[in-house]
Amino acid sequence: MSNPESDTFDLQNLYDESSDHEPESRKVRLKRAIDLNALAPARVASDDWRALLGGAILAVFVLMGTVGVALVDKPTSGDAPVLAAPFQALAYPFGTDVFGQPIHAQLIHATPGIFKMIFAGAVVSVGFAAVVGVLSGFKHGERIDTILMTFTDVVITIPGLPLIIVITAIFQPENPYLVGVFLGIDNWPGLARTVRSQVLSIREESYVEASEIMGIPLSTILRRDILSQLMPYVMINGAITSRRIIFESVGLYFLGILPFTTFNWGVMMNLAYEGNALTRPEMLHWMVFPMLCIFLLSFSLVLLSQGLDSLFNVRLRARHANTTKKDASHTSQSD
Amino acid sequence: MTPRYLLKRLGQALLTFFVTITVSFGLYQAMPGGPTEAMKSVILSQSGSTGMDIDRLNTLIQLYTNVNPDQPVHVQYLNYVRDVVLYQDLGRSFFKNEKVTTLILQRLPWSMFISLYAFALGYSLSIILGVLTAYKEKSRFDSGVSSVVIALNSIPYYIVGVVLIYFLAIEQSYFPVGGRIGSGVPVGYNPDFMISLVKHAALPAISMGVLATSAALSMRGNAIRILGEDYVRVAQLRGLRDTRIATQYLGHNAILPMYTQFMIGIAGVFSSAVIVEEVFSYPGMGLLMFEAVKTQDYPLLMGTLIVFTAISLTAIFVADLTYSLIDPRISVDES
Questions:
Q1: CA distances from B96 to B64, B99, B274, B295, B333 (A)
Q2: What is the pLDDT of residue A307?
Q3: Which of A165, A193, A303 is opposite residue B293, by nearest beta carbon?
Q4: In this complex, is the C-beta atom of B14 within 8 Å of any C-beta atom belonging to chain A?
Q5: Is the pTM higher than 0.90?
Q6: Nearest chain B Cα to A155, which residue?
Q7: What pLDDT, on the 0 to 100 scale, is given for residue A322?
Q8: Could you tell me where the Polar residues compositional bias lies (chain A) (predicted)?
């Protein structure tokens, strides 16, 4: 191979031409890509109740954070009677708190902040994990792999919550995006390791080896063979990471460690808990509704990640592919 | 277990510890206005006097934080590391005006107690449930337990704690609302004291144990995979009892791949003490950290971070050692 540049080009062409099918037009390829990446998962998803239910709940929250914010006024003190019970008046269906602010309006106005946090945290941690994982997986055995994995292991073993508490206590982040980034700090290493082991196992596949022998450039192999296989993992882990970020951010607001600047479910819980809502039945709803919101949002994310897993996990899919028909007739299956 | 593997693990633990100390030192430097300014305002507000000359202030800062702002940064850093590693000197608390190590050592056993309680509870339950659900895959029992586990995974452990307090401590008063031991219970090896101890720790441990239940799902996944293996089929054909197959063939082989999860789980359960102890007002290390955040007691805050890390590292290291004793494969395939 005196001139690798032209060689690779020729080989790639040769590969495309020598395959049985004739070269496809861009349109056909696009159609197939859509079918493979969007329609097929959607078809399988409609079979999976977990993905459906999770998606539906998540959609409700997205609506709350977008349309809801526009429809419902920002609550202020004295909007309504103090500590009204829930399900009594249409103006405040979930009742009000000790300041006379309607609970439902507070819940709705907290959602954009939550989504901003989730977005920032998920993008930072998943992105970072993907870069570290792919890089060290591909440079397996080289120094950079060792360095990256040592770094990953170090961050994995530093206890995440105390570290985040120290950092947020010192920097007192107020911007939801910044809070998300801080919370993302301890969320990437686990995913980075998963991505790396995935890359390692894909690398061993014969078709990747074949591409390598043919001299197809690394970037093409990465894009074609590796990234497409990694997307499921990244998506599933995006959902799991989001759930952790909700848990941690709401928890830190609940403890009062993050500064109270916006409406947040954790802030509501904090105020209610500090006001001894647990022992005062007339205040209990102030505590219960934010808790329900946290539960529903993270439940939807867990369901979604579970549903996506059954979509993408080839092993599970293969295992269940031939059992789905049997399921319908409810035959007990045994291995 | 090869000595090389052991050394590698030990080295990794030490490296992590140094990184944490460095982070802690870096945070002192990164404080808004720098360490001197941040400390100065706190010390001045503590002492109540306004006129204090700079030398005396620097001496005080050095006493509290082990960082002398007079010296160049690298000297400060080396001194800081030396104090932590050689003299276990983490500085003095601003508020309690006592050595940070003394304060932490008083609280540490309590946190370890509830964490180990939670770890044992959560993981043993999830291992048993994981194997059982896999063995009865697709039965009503499987879908029931899996749904409950998924739902539990969607509830933050601190909310589980709040709910437990409400139903089991306030409504029914089976358990105390908070604290470590009942008032008026004589300290010592007597049944009253023991019962009080366990009762006070039960609810925090259960709510932390919820963190570990996600292991049930991965346990189930592992076990399902192993069910398809030949040796399980051979065991079934040999007519071995179900219980024996479930425990010896399934259980044993399915626990092993969960190695990493356990290690991270230990650290996760332990560091969740910060939130749980505040919810249950259980005076352990977590509550100490929480108080440090509230009072801006930076030396105490950094001290708890370093000790949290040290404990987690020790736990993981011990788990590492014992694990390779249980699983001969670990030491072999560890590259």
A1: 11, 8, 19, 10, 50
A2: 79
A3: A165
A4: no
A5: no
A6: B16
A7: 42
A8: 1-11
Q: Does B31 touch chain A (CB under 8 A)?
A: yes
For A109-150, what is each residue's pLDDT tens digit? 999 999 999 999 988 998 899 889 888 888 888 899 999 998
B297 touches B94 (CB < 8 A): yes
CB contact under 8 A, A299 and B151: yes
Eight-state DSSP code of residue A23? P
> pLDDT, tens digit, for every residue of A262-275?
788 999 899 888 88
- State the Cα–Cα distance between residues B131 and B277, nearest whole angstrom: 32
Domain ranges of chain A: 40-324
Q: What is the mean pLDDT of residues A174-202?
A: 87
Does residue B257 have a pLDDT over 90? Answer: no
How far is the C-alpha of B61 from the C-alpha of B2, rounded, in Å? 46
Distance CA A308, CA A51 (A): 7
For chain A, how far is it from start to end, CA to CA, in angstroms? 52
Contacts of A133 (CB under 8 A, 6+ apart): A191, A192, A193, A194, A195, A196, A198, A199
**Which pair of structure tokens corresponds to residue B134?**
């896999």
Beta-carbon separation of A158 and B309 below 8 A: yes
CA–CA–CA angle B95, B208, A280 (5° rounding): 75
CATH node for A40-324: 1.10.3720.10
Distance of CA B91 to the CA centre of its chain: 23
Q: From the candidates A166, A236, A306, A330, which should be mutated to test the interface with B, based on the most B CB atoms within 10 A?
A: A166
Query: B168-187 burial by CB neighbour count: b if 16+ within 10 A, else e?
Result: bbeeeeebbbbebbeeeeee
The burial class, CB within 10 Å (0-12 / 13-18 / 19+), for A264 is buried
**257-276 in B: which are within 8 Å (CB) of A?**
260, 263-264, 267-268, 270-272, 274-275
pLDDT digits (tens, 9 = 90+) for A236-264: 888 888 888 999 999 999 988 888 877 88
Q: Is A81 exposed, middle or buried (0-12, 13-18, 19+ CB in 10 A)?
A: middle
Per-residue pLDDT at B219:
86
Say which range, A11-15, A279-283, B230-234, has the weakest mean pLDDT. A11-15
Q: How far is A74 from chain B (nearest CA, A)?
A: 26
* Closest chain A residue to the Cα of B289, Cα to Cα: A162
